[in-house]
Amino acid sequence: MNDQTPVSAQEREEKLEGIGCKRKRVEDVRFTQGKGNYVDDVKLPGMLFGDFYRSPYAHARIKNINKDSALAVPGVVAVVTAEDLIPLNLHYMPTLAGDVQAVLAHEKVLFQNQEVAFIIAKDRYAAADGVEALEVEYEELEPLVDPFKSMEPDAPLLREDIKDKKEGAHGPRVHHNHIFTWTAGDKDATEDAFSKADVVVKEYLAHPRVHPCPLETCCSVANMDKITGQLTLWGTFQAPHVVRTVASLIANIPEHKIRVIAPDIGGGFGNKVGVYPGYVMSVVGTIVAGAPVKWVEDRIENLTTTAFARDYHITAELAATKDGKILGMRSHVLADHGAFDACADPTKFPAGLYHVCTGSYDIPSAFIQVDGVYTNKAPGGVAYRCSFRVTEAVYTIERIIDVLAQKLDMDPADIRKKNFVQPEQFPYTSATGWEYDSGDYPTAMAKAMDAVGYDQLRQEQAQKLADFKAGKSRQLMGIGISFFTEIVGAGPSKNCDILGIGMFDSCEIRVHPTGAAIARLGTKSQGQGHETTYAQILATETGIPSDMITIEEGDTDTAPYGLGTYGSRSTPVAGAACARAGRKIKQKAQLIASHLLEVHHDDLEWNVDGFQVKGNPEKRKSMKELAWAAYNNVPEGMEMGLEAVDYYDPPNFTYPYGAYFCVVDIDVDTGESKIRRFYALDDCGTRINPMIIEGQIHGGLTEAFAVAMGQLIHYDEYGNVQGGSLMDFFLPTAVETPHWETDYTEVPSPHHPIGAKGVGESPHVGGVPAFSNAVNDAFKKLGGVHTHMPHTSANIWAYAQSLGL
Ligand code: PCD
Ligand SMILES: [Cu+]
387: pLDDT confidence band, cut at 50, 70 and 90? Predict the structure, then answer.
């Protein structure tokens, strides 16, 4: 094996398509041709179909279930209810938050559309007919919809199953609808800061219930091979290994007898982190029916029963000096978790990472309290394109700092600059104990303000306002700023675990004799482009061109254990494992090179894609040659082959950040708004693939736009869920979506092997407050202080009316 054609280092470098290259997404070849392989594409011989009968009531006692009429439907094979699950001890399943959730409602239903019975039939239509035919008698109970009433003394008792439990997963329970009370920060120091401050602001900021609504709904196919005792479970899983472990624990099947496969996934956005009754019932179904069982949610089921996001009722307070230096922050949150606490957060943090809410500012003291309560609503509480409650945290600080600026009559950009954590303060420890790894906020802010022409925008706004006041126009203009700091890459196992499993991640790489390779990881792409970008990291590290490296994720029989993809953790954690596994390959290759070139390995140096003798670059061995030698000519005593595994437990989170500017025009008479301009500067450290990053930003901003301007899962006073279909739930298309301008700075993470930070969530986390601040900014000189999301035309119009405009 010889490298025939002499090529320059630069040409060889380009051929690698490594870190920093705008490499085209390799997965798109199949996606754009409709050749993806999704769960619903799994079709097995003799496969049956399951469908849920769901509760029409939000709160009711189940008096009787008559299976006969459903069983009489042609094609229906079985009807499973909680009574059938009790002997198997499967009528409740553990949630990620340390609660239990009913797999099928037992005695009571606790939210509308809750799973009551699972109908298994020969096809999807017969299953649906069986659902229609099932007869269930209820006795209606008083629904509890308003979380502010959850803990009133005479509030209805929701969870009869745990009514005597005084100790919850996160401390004592003080009321039958109380889940937890959790605090962070220093209460006394914060109170002290508030008592000494010149100014204090306080505002109630609601972050309404929304839903990630991925294109593909949740689904699974389970197949139990009775001969081998092997269970195979295909599903829409963002964390397949965790599903395997949980399945093993709850179904009491040895873990090696379970194979979990997450094939292509049509968007996750947090919706596919949790474990749902549908997954469990497909497994029960295959065991009961002795045939494979498929379960596929429809859109309404997805929006109304699988994990919602937010529903945080936030009170925020800032204390400051009269020239705008912030001294302290307080926040209280009432968290509506619905009927079961099925929140997806690291086990120790029932409110996720909400206590990062001091944001990008050097705030000396802070105190945070979150109370979680039950209501008659669907369970959940997932990230939805944000690292564990960080959207809520960033919304809190970015909105309240604007309120403070308004009270002090300061410019929102100035007050931010005045309070920034300064570059020389990194690593910076926040008042709630987070250690920010790196950043240069003033530089990012200056670049952004320059790019948008901030001062001119403010002048134009002043002119518009003058015209409005003079009665010459009915248009207002708002400028929204958000300078966010994210916390992603869960996480250091000292802080983060899921059900006791530390949140490390992994990469396993095997280099074949011809110098091609396969790498497998514990994460799972849902569209992010991991097949493209992990190969780029490995290419730079090993000198094997990206297009010679296959990336595989999602099959627990082949991939090393990992905690999955959410919270923008793949790059900070598995991406680091990739780099380190690549370095292990290189280390072994160096020893082989020293053997082949007959020089000491210290006399070798790495150059793009191979080792060369220091001072004599003509004498070199490429990685391709070294791979071949690994299978036939290794140094005495060395094992053959070229493989490496890395399990990476990060020393810290990474802290990407950004400066976002939004310009909105509002028609006061109709409440209609138009996002005229949106500029997003992101710093995610070392950029692996700038084109993928741009795509991530576009997607995340679009979701932020959706949340800020229109999305809402609303419940009426009876607990009927509204906004449960795409007729009502706002999913922006190309028609509504504004144009996005993207930009960047690049401050690498000091502790990540390649300096990369996550980026997928940033645009959402930073985007939501930028939109909301823009809308609020339009009204702040007309008596407005804060109006709640979603900023629909109707809401904006009503707000303008309330201000007498
Ligand atoms: N520096 C850097 C960073 C990053 N990157 C890229 O970018 C991406 C992303 O990343 P990240 O940030 O790390 O992240 P991940 O982990 O991978 O992912 C996750 C995210 O991701 C995002 N994005 C997306 N996309 C798509 N397409 N789809 C989807 O689904 C999704 N989702 C969303 C979400 S929501 Mo959660 O779950 O809520 O928590 S979280 C999330 C990838 O590909 C990577 O590689 C680069 O390049 N560079
Ligand atoms: Cu979140």
Answer: confident
> So what's the pLDDT on residue 1?
45
Is the CB of residue 798 less than 8 Å from the CB of residue 671? yes
Q: What is the per-residue pLDDT for 6?
A: 65
Residues 6+ apart with CB under 8 A from 761: 383, 385, 386, 387, 390, 486, 488, 567, 568, 700
Residue 386 is a catalytic residue? yes
CA 403 to chain centroid, in Å, comes to: 28
pLDDT score recorded for residue 700 = 98
Taking CA atoms, 430 is separated from 419, 568, 656, 733, in Å, by 13, 21, 15, 39
Cα(507)–Cα(576) distance, integer angstroms: 9
Nearest to 712 by CA among 206, 292, 247, 324: 206
Domains delineated in the chain? 9-36+505-648 (3.30.365.10), 39-141+217-265+272-305 (3.90.1170.50), 308-490+653-802 (3.30.365.10)
Q: How far is the CA of 690 from the centre of ligand 1 (A)?
A: 13
Q: Which two tokens stand for residue 587?
A: 């280390």
Residue 642: closest CA among 762, 542, 779, 757: 542
CA distances from 738 to 311, 348, 796 (A): 26, 39, 18
Closest CA to 773 of 655, 654, 675, 631: 675
Which ligand 1 atom is at minimum distance from the Cα of 525? 17
User: What are the tokens at 377?
Assistant: 């609503």
In the predicted structure, residue 614 carries a pLDDT above the cut 50: yes
Q: Lowest mean pLDDT: which of 440-449, 491-500, 517-526, 611-620?
A: 491-500
The residue count of the chain comes to 805
Is residue 238 annotated as part of the catalytic site, yes or no? yes
Window from 36-50, 343-357, 687-701 with minimum mean pLDDT: 343-357
Residues pairing with 167 in the sheet: 172
DSSP code string of 591-628: HHHHHHHTS-GGGEEEETTEEEETTEEEEEEEHHHHHH
Pocket of ligand 1 (CB under 6 A): 238, 267-270, 383-386, 526-530, 533, 565-571, 684-689, 692-693, 696, 699, 756-761
> Is there a contact between 474 and 784 (Cβ–Cβ < 8 Å)?
no
Determine the pLDDT at residue 252. Answer: 87
Residue 429, H or E segment: strand 428-429
Residues 6+ apart with CB under 8 A from 531: 25, 26, 27, 525, 550, 551
Mean pLDDT of 383-395: 94
